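Box 3.1 A note on notation
Throughout this textbook, protein chains are presented in two layers. The first layer is the amino acid sequence; the second is a token string describing backbone geometry. Keep the layers aligned when reading.
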Amino acid sequence: MVQNHSWTPPDVGPRAAILGLDNWDDFGFRTSFDLWFRPAENTSPIGIGRVKIALADQPTGPSPVPEGDFPDGLPTTGSPWISVGQDALYYEALAGFGQAGQEILRGLGDVTTTEDASRLERELRNLEQSSAVFRISLLRNISLNTVLRQWRRIATGGPRQTQYWFSYHLPQAAGEIVHPPLDFEVRPASVPSSNIHVLIGPNGVGKTTLLRSLATAAVAPTPVPMTAEGRIVYNNDAGFANVLLVTFSAFDPFIGVHPDREVKFQHVGLTAYRDSGEPGDAHGSRLKEREELAGEFIDSLRSIATSGHYGQWVTTLFILGSDRQFRDAVIGDDEDTPIPDHPIGLLKGDGNELTNGAGRSWRAIFMNLSSGHALVLLTVTRLVDLVAERTLVLIDEPEAHLHPPLLSSFVRALSELLSDRNGVAITATHSPVVLQEVPKSCAYKIRRSRGRARRPRIETYGENVGVLTHEIFGLEVKKSGFYAELEKAVERFDSYEDVLRFFDDQLGDEAKGLVHVLLADKWAESR
């Protein structure tokens, strides 16, 4: 568990909001509290969630708010109180109390309570510029767009998640055939999940170039006219809350992507951008040292500790732990310990060092991991910290550092996180292991002809990797390795059983799946 504070609220007391102080440090500010609500006198308090509270002009140092009961809200001061819940569930819990929840929000100075949406946006953007504690602590790794759109909607009784969609229109040269847009739709609670979309095709067809163009369009102001990088059309012109760029390669395709100031974006990967004019390689990036990556990991861990996302971080690690090597390296080998009691831990040890439940330093754990395991741990930790509703996560070739079992676990963990937060990811890949984790309605096959993209012909979710390989790569795979031998056998024999006998029943599952597809193709061609 997270070691925040030892104080818990008593059952005895008035009907009140109850604050429990958390002394985690946000760059010098101490603003974090756990909120409970005692709905009637001398009844058991109900946990609401994590909230950050401050005076608008609060300096660094201890919080001016004591922990305890607040039946009438916070005391009046010369400077206004401001507060921000740290996730959507906080606002959903308070909305469930109706008028009482609204009273708590107003009593704590919650920033979502201004009724006029346009005025609220102006006030909060001004506050972001004028108040250091608001900008640095209350909004630490939270997009103001998330507060304005999703959290305000929930606080006023709206749903926690909403359906949304967007279309990417590729740039068109003069006289070029107009290609249809790439459509992406996110449907909350859909099965299979619609929060991950895949761009798949052989190497060299332009997947990474397409992803980079999409990134440039995503961080542009909205609405935006057609540019050299294309444009994105949104269902409600709202754009994305924030954009996360994830690369698993030392060759970063996102160099030169410059966001509009209202679009918060983060880069997660092995490379760091160079400042303009800094001497270095011509591509404007450099490789990060392992110690620098460890610093990013620890920074996100501290943010998770203050935001109330610890439980989801643990759940994500356990999904990744289905890969035994990752589990042994990061989690430990006690498979019988239930998740809530498992000593993964996020504790403050000597000198404020973050440790797990067994007292091991998380920085040391990270430094001792293989490059692949370290990059996955960094990536999922950053994503748990940063993803919100309408977050766009762009991922380039995750298979570059991950073997298939860990790759599959990573995609499942990403899907669960995005489904919970209502974010969306677009992944460029040539791996059918990634494709089999999404339905065909969330996949595009990319071909060498510029801008040529279409849905797979077959359903892809849970499909055999061999079948998917044939569907995506077609003739290119049939002419290499065992694929060519299978094709020769299918040309010679007309039944599945005859082909198996020809190989003396020594075909693996992938090969058997391809035999079915090749025979179907042969039958279709003979009609």
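The chain has a mean pLDDT of 85. The chain is about 35% helix and 15% strand.
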